[in-house]
Amino acid sequence: MPTTPEVAIPSTVGGTVPVPTITPSTAKPTDAAKPPVLPEQATAPPPPAAGPVSSKNLPPADKLGTGWKTFVEEGGAEAGWLGNKTWTRQRSAHQAAYEALPVGCAGRLPTGSLPVPLHALQATYRTGADLPATALLLRFVNAAQAQQYFTGYQARMAACGASADAQLAVEPLWSEQDAAAQLRRYAGAEAYAETSVRQGATVALVAAQDPNAGAEWAQKVVPELRTVIDSA
After folding, report:
1. End-to-end distance of the chain based on CA atoms, in angstroms?
2. How confident is residue 3, by pLDDT bands cut at 50, 70 and 90?
């Protein structure tokens, strides 16, 4: 629920007219299903780690697919973030968790709230076919919150629908407890095969711009992710 901004003691202009001074709320966001009030600020290169979450929480690139390799993106003004000369970067946890949710679906999505993670780390790769791929790690305060986000995320993906007339169509590929794979197809644009997994207090989302990466790929990737994503 939105919090009412604190109102500080009024100051005066010329000693006569009171002018209330508004102090912005410092309350932490509590719902990842709602966009952040303030977007990520690209004022400096982001750290390569997000708190305790770092590159050690990602499997070696070749474990995610044959010929995969890490890739350093330059970032910049058009990208909305500044490069840090590494293949991993800290994200605003609220922004990252919100942007991961499906948008532009034909189906009506659930409206329940979702927990905001403590930390978010994004990594960039190139597949064996030299196509873009990313991994997003969301570390929550505990396993219960990670489970709540993962369940809400999967419910939204399932409700999105596979209509070719929508901005986004989601085709389910495979699922088991705490892991799933889908194919995201954007109208007039690229398609992404995506694997998601929840382990302990961490949710991992791996997406590859490769519509041929299907259920078999997901089943191979999941155990590799489970091994490292929630380690200290």
Report:
1. 32
2. very low
Give the whole-angstrom CA distance, residue 124 versus residue 87: 6
DSSP state of 47: P
Provide the phi-psi class of 67: left if phi over 0, else alpha when psi is between -120 and 50, else beta. Answer: left
Task: Write out the E strands in the chain.
Answer: 6-7, 11-13, 17-19, 22-23, 69-70, 75-76, 81-82, 88-91, 119-126, 132-139, 168-176, 179-186, 191-199, 202-208
Q: What is the CB neighbour count within 10 angstroms for residue 77?
A: 8
Neighbours of 7 (CB within 10 A): 10
Q: Under a CB-based contact definition with an 8 Å cutoff, are residues 43 and 51 in contact?
A: no
Q: What is the pLDDT of residues 17-61, one digit of tens each?
A: 444 443 344 456 789 999 998 777 777 899 999 999 999 999 999
Parent domain of 202: 32-228
Structurally, how many domains does the chain consist of? Answer: 1
Taking the model in full, what pTM does it have? 0.85
Q: Which CATH number belongs to the domain containing residue 201 in this structure?
A: 3.40.1000
Q: Is 8 exposed, middle or buried (0-12, 13-18, 19+ CB in 10 A)?
A: exposed
